[in-house]
Amino acid sequence: MQKLKYNFFTANEIKPEGWLRRQLTIQADSLSGNLDLIWPDVRDSSWIGGSRDGWERTPYWLDGFIPLAWLLGDENLKARAKRYVDGILSFQKPDGWLTPCADGERDSYDMWAYILVCKVLALYGDCTGDERIVPALEKAFTAFHERIKRAPLHNWGKFRWFEALIPIFWLYDKTGKDNFSPLVADIIAQGESYPGLYENWQGAEPKREWTLETHVVNAAMAIKCDALASRLSGGDPDAFAEKMYSMIRAVHGTPNGHFTGDECFAGTSPIQGSELCGVVEAMYSYEQLISLTGNMKWADRLEDAAFNALPAPFLPDMWTHQYDQQINQIGCYNMGEKRVWLTNPPDSNRFGLEPCYGCCTANFNQGWPKLALSSFYRADDGILSAVFVPSTVKTKISGADVSVRLATEYPFRDSLLYIVNTSEPVEFALHIRIPSYADAVTVDGETVAPGTLHTVRRKWKDGDTVQVSLTLTPRFVERPNGLWCVRRGALLFSLPVKDKRRMFEYEKDGVARKFPYCDYELYPDSDWQYAFASDKLETVECDDSDGFPFSDTHQPLKIKAEFVPIDWGMEEGFEFVCAAKPRSEKPAGKPVTLMLQPYGSTNLRMTEMPRVAPV
User: Fold this and answer.
1) End-to-end alpha-carbon separation of the chain, Å?
2) With contact defined as beta carbons under 8 Å apart, do 465 and 419 qualify?
């Protein structure tokens, strides 16, 4: 079995701090932390003996709720998670079968949910050390193998087969027993061959056609497929991941670190959507790829998605979310019969409890907690600092109790301070990823090259520190169709559009939408038809906070820029969807100075705009 380059710490070893802890607390206090109380598909789930959904929704929710509970150390959340795990284990059949379906339905059951709940149990085992988990998973995978010998993987299970390798390899790493290599081989043989699919890729052209092959969430997950399989095959874990990622980004990439898919690949137009499930699954792929490949480009890509595409489709209190977000988004509403989305329903960018489909309602929960779990990784010779979020890791090294704390307000500020505490002097390596997008970086005053891995190796004493300073300047980035956007470091910036809001409380399919988890439609209430009018960009640091790290009204970092009004116009047939590119780039007024704010802090926004000279 091929060894991991870096191993994950558990939620008992990593503790979020600063703005990240605040973000996780917001999540726990809002929709994510209350789905088991208010949403029938989780509250009354068949997984715990109820009558509602018995497929992916409860496992999806637990996949984020479990690490959230342990990262925050919240005993109430932990007890509620345990109730679900106890219920799932109590219904496991004597032969190991794990999902809530009748025995006669096993061969037709889509195994994706079976795979997902096995991942959840492994995660719970990491958080708790529960001795029931290893034998339960061993039995579950024995039953899994018997099933796919009779009835091969199909549908979602066929296209997400590689996710099963995560809990199988977890068992191997825990027990040292290589019992399931034949199962892994059969799973790989039955699953969709993504290397084969991308040899003759049919997904470059956006189509109004729903297929599993071009489904954005399948693709976001599959970026890591060959890297996971390489643990058994011994192949290069990075080669196909880079090929697939690069191919998708080239024709569907967005400036927020992700790619379009509403529901399937949708091209590079700034008014096409990106599904929230796709964002969190891409992030999870990058987190796994850091561990599997050791290549820090995946950490750059993880931050890019996490600080931009992840917060954008939520209102700041996280009680409501969008299914699809847009790069240029001037209205969020039910579009009616005519819709801009390729295959999604017309309400897909409305904010609510369950806009479009409920998968994102359950699945978004993993985004922030798993990012926190990826702040530090365990290295053979010490600790890797991969993602710059405020957090502390506590572990043992050579018998000594060691903690490394990263004190930072990054990505809103440019300095990092590592504080090491040890019970006794101990030697180890602190590996620090140096982001590729930095203009310049110093570590304790020493200049280091961007895009490298810098190692501080010493005999550490209690209270030792390492200071990292980043130089990040705002810059224009070219986009298709003659449009441009502004980035600074890991952050994308947008021109915010003020919104006027309509609230909807109602019931649908027996599920209430009521405040604070009601629906909202947002309409533009400020000018948005602009073009960039100068090359000058000025960073403005603000001492401004309302307790929400990605607030739409208070931001710690902005960029001052000059604009001119233009006649942009609406997409034909739509009242509140701006045209994919402006009708005219001719200045229609005098230059004005406006403030850009982080993309993730906007509800309505213009992000990609032309650059024109003022008259």
Assistant:
1) 65
2) yes
CA 222 from chain centre, in angstroms, equals: 14
157-182 burial, b if ≥16 CB within 10 A, otherwise e?
A: bbbbbbbbbbbbbbbbeeeeeeebee
Summarize pLDDT for 63-91 with one digit per residue, the tens. Answer: 999 999 999 999 999 999 999 999 999 99
What does the alpha-carbon distance between residue 373 and residue 66 come to, in Å, rounded to a whole number? 12
Centroid of chain to Cα 345: 23
Cβ pair 489, 435 in contact under 8 A: yes
Q: Decide if 450 contacts 444 (C-beta within 8 A).
A: no
Place of tokens 């199962």: 183
Q: What are phi and psi of 137, to 5 degrees?
A: -70, -35
Find where tokens 């470091």 sit: 489
pLDDT digits 0-9 by tens, 123-140: 999 999 999 999 999 999
Measured torsion, CA atoms of residues 359, 365, 366, 370, in degrees rounded to the nearest 10: 170
Contact 561, 593 (CB under 8 A): yes
Residue 452, Cβ density class (10 Å: 0-12 exposed, 13-18 middle, ≥19 buried): middle
**Which of these, 146, 61, 147, lies nearest to 111 by C-alpha position?**
147
Report, as ranges of residue numbers, the positions in the chain whose pLDDT lies below 70: 615
Distance of alpha carbon 47 from alpha carbon 356, whole angstroms: 23
Q: Name the one residue in this structure whose structure tokens are 């949708």.
A: 266
Question: How many Å apart are CA 330 and CA 570, to the nearest integer?
Answer: 10
Element (H, E) at 26: helix 18-29
* Amino acid (one-letter) located at 160: R
